[in-house]
Design a protein that fits this description.
Helix content: over 70%
Structural class: mainly alpha
Number of domains: 2
Largest sheet: 2 strands, antiparallel
Shape: globular
CATH superfamily of the largest domain: MetI-like
Length: 309
Amino acid sequence: MAVEAGELGALRATGQVARRQAVSRASRYAFLAASLAGVFVLLFLAYETVQQGWERIWPPAELELFLTSYPSRFAERAGLRSSALGSLWVLSITVLVALPVAVGTAVWIEEFAPKNRLVDLVKLNLANLAGVPSIIYGVLGLAVFSRFFGLGPSILAGALTLSLMIIPMTVLASQEAIRQVPASIRDASLALGATEWQTVWHHVLPGAMPGIMTGVILAVSRAAGETAALIMIGAFTFIAFDNAQLPILHGWGSLKEDFTTVPIQIYNWTIRPQPEFRTNAAAAIIVLMVAVLALNLVAAIIRERFRRS
């Protein structure tokens, strides 16, 4: 028997059922321990980083100096000005390129694409591309954007490379969000005379927007901390000027200028032998973490507004 009556009439598992329950409890505690261990390591690293880099960002005057100074061979004079502007440019262009492509692809696959082997192959490739290491996208960006199209180690080449990297994971997140929209909403819209595109635009996309925003912010957070792909296209350079020219008003503007980003600047400082540069790297990590958390907060606010509406 799988269960037997106890002294007080309660049922108690025996045999194979008891063994399964014991394994289930052991697995639960093992996974809990693994999660707590990961959180502990993360908190320890964050504490060490803040402790080492705090002197470069506090008081506020030090933070202002750190954010407005160019890189320098003297650690006390070095700052994040050019790399912060480079990150802003690259992430802005990346989002402008990747977001419409990714969401449009997800909408086409879920709402308009025929059910055949070709579409199944596209879905399979998207799932595989989402797990490709970033260095592979860097090699692709170097071969296609930097050399074939002649963009060199420019902001536009970096942004297009990061766009290729985040499009697959954004497509997958958008597909899942679109699937969560109830079919009854589509049926009701079509029954009232709306076209398929009107149904998608006015009902499906607003309903899926919270999930889409979650996928977008996760993808952008990955791009914000990316280093390997950008180093491959030649972004590992010393930049002591502002990328401040707007495109269209000044031709290509700053899009074809050399650049660097905050993660690359952090990497550059960590390989220096002087301990003062490691302090700068820790301070830059704090700035980058705060920026990513702020980005996630903004996305969470937007997601909640769409959810309530």
